[in-house]
Amino acid sequence: EQRVKAEPFLDLPVISDNQLRIWKMLSTQAREALVEMRGESADPAVQGWIDLALAATYAERKTRNIEQWRSAYPDHPASAALLEQIADNTNSTQRVNAPIVGGKIALLLPLDNPAYGNAAKAVQAGVLAALATDAGKPEIVTYATGGADSVVSLYQQAVTAGATFVIGPLTRDEVTQLAAESMTVPVLALNQPEAAVKPQPRLTLFGLPVESEARQVARLARSHGMQSALIVAAATPLAERMAKAFADEWLVLDGTIAAQLALPAPEQRADFKLDATQKTADMIFLATNASQAQQVRPWLDAAVPTYGTSHLYDGAAKSIQNQDLLAVHFVDAPWLVEPDRPDYPALLPAEQMAGAELQRLYALGLDAYRLVAALTDAPAAGKILLEGATGRITMQENNVLTRELTPAQFRREGVVPEHMD
To answer: Which of 2, 111, 113 is nearest to 365 (CA)?
Structure first.
């Protein structure tokens, strides 16, 4: 801010150096930090610099985003030379494309489990699709897991058979069991354990946890200037996890919670609507799935900004059922809300995945395979490993991978990403 304010008093050569310093400071910040900073500044020139940094964080969309930025900020002081340099520069946020040369990857997936079999097949299909586009072509062997009791012995069987890397398990109980054992071959687990586990150097935790999505939604809403929230939650364990994660993050961000209301039964809609209108809040957070959100949204004030996780989106961008969700903000995997990314056509499944949940799991398989090469480099905490199909993936402390999803909104023309909104 001080450098922006000083610029009108500087000579031309010094202005160029000053702008380069501004850019270097912003370009090293994480996206979530940039979003938070933008919400704190009322200076349009500062906001323009921050939006420029946000535009450049999407490597595959950088050129288009910078053009959109130019249109949004036609009078911004950033020089044309600097903008050209930013557009041409390739940095650490580029997608990981290094081939996996040789080796044998073991997949531990519950393929024969009636409850998780379809999910496992979607992940497997994603892994194999990513393999098909890789120049390295390692060998992949799939092992059907049978629950927590046998997952450790199955891991040892894979290692004995020559596996040099393991992807899986997929279920929480299997991950919990395997995480308690010492490992001789690196593991990329595709879920979170039931409780905190002792960090292991060869164990990396990945997956699609709803808690991280809810926390991102809280940060997104705060960046939009929201201060008080009304939480509407379904009476399910998953919805309760969403609501708690959102509330915890919201309070850390100094937001206030007006109330938390339970999703009503149809005969209670009048009482629910009256109760909701009596709660004064800047925004509403829906801790629900898609059908529940479609049901409850008409009972809420449509003028109040409303937010939710990927569970609000059923994958049908122009479904008539989504008309009830118009203007609702949510976050989701780029695979679902940015299907025009240039590298996606080569990764499409042979058969269309039925439903958004299986599509996200397919994207999880795509990213799991491509993370193998990145993880062999022993990445430091805070490093962006992959601009993935499930989101921007960053290594955190204790070998935990987190995803930053794409903000999007339901609009009359369909689902629209909100990068530059």
So the answer is: 111
